[in-house]
Structure formats: structure tokens, C-alpha cells
Amino acid sequence: MIIATGLWSVMRVGGPVFGRFSALACAAAVAGAALAGLTAGTAHADPGCPDVHWIGAAGSGERVDPTADGGMGRVVYQSLRDLSRQLQQDGRTVTAEAVDYPAVAVPADGDLLGWSGFMNSVDAGTAALGAQYASFAQRCPATKVVLAGYSQGAMVVHRNLNALADSPNVAAALLIADGDRLPGDNVFSTGSVTAMPGKGKGVAQDWPILAHAPAKLPLAIGSRTISVCDRGDAVCDYDSDAEKVTQAAVAIHTSYALNTSGGYAWTAPVYQLLGPARQVSAPDSDARAINTTTAPADSSSAASTATMASIAPSGDIPAR
Predict the structure, then answer these.
(1) Which of 118, 177, 273, 304 is the 20 to 30 A CA-CA neighbour of 31?
(2) Residues 63, 60: Cα–Cα separation, whole Å
(3) What structural domains and CATH numbers belong to the chain?
(4) How far is CA 102 from the centre of its chain?
């Protein structure tokens, strides 16, 4: 059972927020049923394909060491671990890969060259994720895919969603502290910013033309998207009237998933979007383990490697 605590207690069973998510989830189910035949008969799954595949995009400066946190940054990696615990209980198998992109650090205010490099990093990540997703979906057309990103990584995920709106493989998208966040978007929103109507505008939306910020998502993919933002976050709840970014705003931005034991409020809706497990016999979940390796990415993008994490019974980790 997932227990939502602290600022995330807004997702109450039976409450208005949960009700809105249920409505969005129903829309996603209808859309998924209508699109389910798009890949049927056109591709054959690799026999080693997992039940669920996670593609994670790190935040700014989180890939200085691309081997740390699976290459996807602390917040996204902890979110993967939290979801994996739930899926293990169902006997489902999970693999994961990190988006191979620079994830450059946030430049100083007024550093125009630095900001140009930052947007180039976002563009590189957007292209890399698109290529990695396409490669995986071709190889494993029946696997459910979760796209997840934090901060700059959330922008990388967000900027792929419109193009993937008709893809039945994408079961869920998780955007944590998204710099492209739009108040009132067609997504399931959680976090303390939801208590303030009209708040929660991402920093890129303050200059959407220069930053190429996306518009509202179509319901077909928005109904499968979870946006997490806390009030006062320097990136997803940007204050355009502030003279400078405060340390308090930065502290809020870096406060997600600090509890390494999990139980994050966004895990429950992601799990719900993945739907029920297939009815097959499963090994004892207590005997399952996570194995992380680095393997070549089967992708035509500039990304040459992808960090893969497999969840399987101990002693029976699939080779990748």
C-alpha cells in the first residue's frame, strides 16, 4: 500500500483530486483501447521483453557521474525504486534505462551563452529520449513504458509527449518539478501548488517562444501524465516578479524524494495507469532483486549507452 505523507497528502481516496485522476485514467483507458491495434501484427516482441520499461531523464547537473543513480538522477531513480517495489508484489518484471544526454547545470542569471547551452542540452535530451523510446517500442511492442523526468529531465520528457500521444506503449509519464509546466494543463496534478489555482507555471513558460515551451497537452496523452510540483519551487512554480531565485525556492526544488524509503504520492497514480498485472504464476517477491548494468543502447540517436536496471528473481537476472 502506498502512503502519501506531508505535502503529498492532497491525494485522498475519494477526494476531489483522486476523483479527477480517476476520470483522467478512464479517458486513458478508452484512448488506449482505441489505439491498441496500432502495433499489433507489425512487430514481434523479443522473448526477453519485460512487463514494464522505465525511461528516466536526469535533472540539471545530475549526470556529472553518469553511473550514479542509474544515470537518471536521484529523484527519478528513487521514484523507479518505489514503483518497482509495488510491481514486484505483482510478480512483474521491470527494466529501465537513462536518457543519454548532457543534463548540463543551470547557468548563472545573465549568462546568455550558458542559457543557450542549457537549451541545447534540453534539445539533445528530447531527441535522445525520442530515439531510445522508438528503439525500445519496436523491440518490445507489448511492454508498457513509463517516461519519467525531474527538472530539466521533466522538460525532456514533456517535449516528447505530444508526438507520442497516439502511442499505446506509453502507459504513464511522470513530470517532477517540470520547467515546462502549465497551470490548467490536461494532466493529473499533485503537490502543494495544486492548492493555489493558477499557480505552478514552469520557468520556460515565462518566455515560451525563446524556450520553445510546449502548449497544453492533448487529452490522449495528458490523461496518462502526472505532474508533480510544490508551491514556491524555483523551476515549476517560477516567480517572474522575483529579483532573483531565492535559496528557499531552490531548497523546495531539491526536496523531492528525499525519503529514500519511498511511499511517494506520485507512485500510486503511475501504478494505477499501468493497470493490473497479467495473471501468471510469479516467484516469491521476497526473493527478487535489482541488478544495474551498463549496456549498449539499441538506438539510432547520438546516445551510445543506456543504463539498464532489471528486476527479476535473485539468481535469474536476464542478460542485457
Answers:
(1) 177
(2) 8
(3) 6-313 (3.40.50.1820)
(4) 17
Do 88 and 102 touch, CB atoms closer than 8 A?
A: no
CA angle 43–45–50, rounded 5-degree value: 140
Assess contact for 145 and 168: CB atoms under 8 A: no
Residue 199 backbone dihedrals phi, psi, to 5 degrees: -90, 170
Residue 60 C-beta-side C-alpha neighbours within 13 Å: 22
List the pLDDT tens digit at each of the 320 positions of the chain.
Answer: 222 222 222 222 233 333 444 444 444 443 443 333 333 334 456 778 999 999 999 999 999 999 999 999 999 999 999 999 999 999 999 999 999 999 999 887 666 676 788 999 999 999 999 999 999 999 999 999 999 999 999 999 999 999 999 999 999 999 999 999 999 999 999 999 999 888 999 999 887 767 788 889 999 999 999 999 999 999 999 988 787 888 999 999 999 999 999 999 999 999 999 999 876 544 433 333 333 333 333 433 333 334 344 433 322 223 33
225-228 and 170-176 beta bridge pairing: parallel
Residue 101 amino acid letter: Y
Q: DSSP per residue over 176-200, as a string?
A: ES-TT--TT-SSEEESGGGGSTT--
